[in-house]
């Protein structure tokens, strides 16, 4: 049995990969990992990585828990010589919005979507140090379950 947080992260990854053609302006294959940081040489290809992020549980009633489960979705790509031109970063910001919109209001199994936050629209540190675009979404789901 997988933890509920891992189950949600896996479901989000699968949902992104099952999106109909044309849903996103750029093609990618989402992966699930615990460490979303790729080596620079691996970022020539667009990377979308889903990671388990946080788990908060409270009592729903005498027998059930209400869990808030958050996963992070990292979108990363090396900018190459295009770092100072806005074209490539603008397209990646569009993709961040597309992924957020796609996951909004979409249940994952029995877990209901609660909110989506853009934690990092882009990482200035990655931009300056690695010439790479990194954005992070936090997507939170609510699950009521019997432990």
Q: How does this structure look, described?
A:
The chain has 147 residues and is α+β, with helices and mostly antiparallel strands. The chain has a single domain (4-145), classed as STM4215-like, CATH 3.30.2000. Helix content is 26%, strand content 35%. The protein is built from 3 helices and 5 strands, in the order αβββαβαβ. It has helices at residues 4-17, 87-103, 124-130; strands spanning 31-32, 47-59, 65-78, 112-120, 132-145. It has a 5-stranded mixed β-sheet, with helices on both faces. It is elongated. The model has no long low-confidence stretch (mean pLDDT 92).
Task: Set down the secondary structure blueprint.
Layout lengths: L3 H14 L13 E2 L14 E13 L5 E14 L8 H17 L8 E9 L3 H7 L1 E14 L2
Parallel strand pairs: 1-2
Antiparallel strand pairs: 2-3, 3-5, 4-5
State the gist of this model:
With 147 residues, this protein is of the alpha+beta class. The protein has three helices and five strands, in the order H-E-E-E-H-E-H-E.
Features:
single chain, 147 residues, alpha+beta, STM4215-like
Count of discrete alpha- or pi-helical segments spanning 4 or more residues:
3
Mean pLDDT across residues: 92
Q: Using the coordinates above, name the CATH class.
A: Alpha Beta
> What is the end-to-end distance?
13 Å
Share in helix: 25-40%
Specify the structural class.
alpha+beta
């Amino acid at each position: 049995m997988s933890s509920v947080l891992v189950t949600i992260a896996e479901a989000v990854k699968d949902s992104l990969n099952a999106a109909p053609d044309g849903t996103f302006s750029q093609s990618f294959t989402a992966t699930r990992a615990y460490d979303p940081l790729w080596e620079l040489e691996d970022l020539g290809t667009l990377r979308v990585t889903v990671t388990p992020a946080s788990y908060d549980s409270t009592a729903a009633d005498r027998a059930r828990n209400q869990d808030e489960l958050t996963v992070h979705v990292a979108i990363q790509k090396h900018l190459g010589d295009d770092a100072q031109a806005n074209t490539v970063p603008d397209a990646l910001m569009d993709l961040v919005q597309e992924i957020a919109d796609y996951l909004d209001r979409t249940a994952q199994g029995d877990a209901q979507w609660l909110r989506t936050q853009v934690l990092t629209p882009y990482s200035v540190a990655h931009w300056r140090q690695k010439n790479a675009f990194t954005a992070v979404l936090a997507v939170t789901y609510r699950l009521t379950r019997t432990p």
